[in-house]
């Protein structure tokens, strides 16, 4: 821990007899010693250190305000907005585990315009009503930079504003290759870029634009899967891009956190470490997609987490948080009970809800596991052409499944324990 962090936690909060000066006003440092033991168990490692707190205040000063919000404690955590890493950051709230994967950038013909126009507003309204506090979504390179030197941010400006206006935090994924930058001769999106600098320039542009509202950035998705990174090379190429992106991201916004690209096979985090990636991500990230119809599915999830945790400890990295950014299963209507997905027969809607309840009541108890992103927020309307199209908490027509009702229930139960 940094000197500042030690002082904050020691109980000697005379706060240096001073604090930070902003717009001519002197502010004391926040007194984290008043937070509960459970809060500290989850969050001590991520209390901003000296360099990060300085960067936070510089961002606020550059913005001309102390985060322009009406309330002095917008997120209700007892820490005034001046001292939070950002009112849009999750570090100050005590890390409840709830989050969803939502393809909110899907407004193309190939995805049936899933969130075009009013559908986006409708989706965010459902999230806000249900209490979903965090969303994982793509900031597609192809959308944002369709050709070299051309930048288009309007769509993402709208999405980010809509989410943050509803107090929903964002894990932004920077991925996949824009067609013009792909190393593949046919310009395929799932090949790495022909020049890493093209990717880091795109990442800098995105992080710079949204640094006062988005604080968590994931570098690529499932780079260990042939579906998303070709050719597979034991994560050598990915780790290099991760290192370069981490460096430019921290220069662009020193208070941001870099999340490892979600690994389809959790054990492959070993490759990241062997390729020298230890110091180039702040949060470990895995995907665990198994069928709740299998024997002892919770044990399988816990085993994967334990394997990752042991690897992290072995490489001297045992204090980092673990996020599971994809965990889910189909929930199909009874009339479609024969529909299959890659893990076998598809669970029905009731079975999906039961699995969700088990996951959120048990998995957040695992050491280091801070967030579980349910995949998906909404059914995908035939895009995958198998049971995966029914991963949603809500149906394609936006009606709620039993799993959404169960999600609302476990969120309220968690809040009652805080």
Brief digest:
The protein has 418 residues and is of the alpha/beta class.
Q: What attributes characterize this protein structure?
A:
418 residues; alpha/beta; TIM Barrel; 2 domains; eight-stranded parallel β-sheet; two-stranded antiparallel sheet; 12 strands; 13% strand; disordered N terminus
What is the overall pLDDT average?
85
State the CATH topology of the largest domain.
TIM Barrel
Which CATH C-level class of the largest domain is it? Alpha Beta
Give the proportion of residues in helices: 25-40%
The H-level CATH homologous superfamily of the largest domain, spelled out, is: Glycosidases
Point out poorly predicted stretches: 1-19, 64-71, 74-79
CATH architecture of the largest domain: Alpha-Beta Barrel
Q: Determine the number of helices (DSSP H or I, runs of at least 4 residues).
A: 12
Instruction: State the end-to-end distance.
Output: 25 Å
The string of secondary-structure elements, in order, is HEEHHEHEHHEHEHEHEHEEEHEH
The overall number of domains is 2
Q: How many strand units? A: 12
Q: Which strand order do you get reading across the main beta sheet? A: 7-6-5-4-3-12-9-8
Largest sheet: 8 strands, parallel
- SS content category: alpha/beta
Radius of gyration: 21 Å
Overall shape: globular
- Proportion of residues in extended strands: 5-15%
């Amino acid at each position: 821990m940094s000197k500042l962090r030690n002082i904050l936690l020691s109980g000697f909060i005379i706060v240096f007899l001073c604090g930070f000066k902003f717009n001519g006003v002197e502010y004391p440092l926040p007194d984290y010693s008043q937070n509960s033991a459970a809060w500290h168990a989850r969050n001590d490692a991520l209390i901003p250190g000296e360099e990060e707190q300085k960067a936070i205040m510089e961002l606020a000063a550059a913005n001309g305000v102390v985060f322009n919000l009406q309330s002095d404690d917008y997120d209700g955590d007892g820490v005034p907005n001046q001292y939070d890493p950002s009112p849009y950051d999750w570090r100050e709230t005590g890390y409840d585990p709830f989050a969803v994967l939502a393809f909110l950038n899907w407004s193309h013909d190939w995805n049936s315009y899933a969130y075009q126009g009013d559908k986006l507003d409708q989706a965010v309204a459902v999230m806000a009503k249900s209490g979903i506090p965090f969303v994982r979504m793509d900031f597609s390179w192809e959308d944002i930079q369709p050709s070299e030197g051309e930048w288009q941010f309007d769509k993402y400006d709208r999405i980010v504003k809509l989410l943050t206006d509803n107090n929903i935090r964002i894990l932004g994924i920077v991925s996949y290759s824009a067609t013009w930058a792909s190393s593949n001769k046919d310009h395929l999106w799932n090949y790495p870029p022909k020049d890493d600098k093209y990717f880091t320039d795109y990442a800098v542009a995105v992080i710079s634009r949204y640094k006062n509202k988005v604080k968590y950035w994931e570098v690529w998705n499932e780079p260990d899967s042939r579906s998303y990174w070709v050719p597979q090379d034991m994560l050598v190429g990915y780790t290099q891009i991760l290192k370069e992106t981490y460096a430019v991201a921290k220069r662009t916004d020193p208070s941001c956190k870099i999340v490892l690209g979600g690994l389809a096979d959790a054990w492959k985090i070993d490759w990241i470490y062997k390729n020298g990636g230890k110091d180039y991500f702040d949060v470990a990230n895995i995907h665990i997609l198994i069928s709740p119809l299998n024997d002892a599915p919770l044990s399988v999830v816990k085993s994967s987490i334990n394997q990752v945790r042991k690897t992290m400890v072995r490489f001297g990295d045992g204090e980092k948080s673990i996020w599971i950014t994809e965990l889910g299963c189909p929930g199909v209507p009874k009339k479609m009970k024969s529909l299959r997905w890659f893990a076998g027969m598809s669970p029905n809607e009731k079975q999906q809800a039961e699995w969700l309840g088990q996951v959120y009541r048990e998995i957040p108890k695992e050491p280091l596991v801070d967030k579980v992103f349910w995949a998906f927020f909404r059914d995908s309307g035939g895009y995958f052409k198998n049971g995966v199209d029914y991963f949603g908490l809500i149906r394609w027509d936006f009606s709620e499944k039993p799993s959404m009702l169960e999600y609302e229930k476990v969120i309220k139960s968690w809040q009652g324990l805080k």
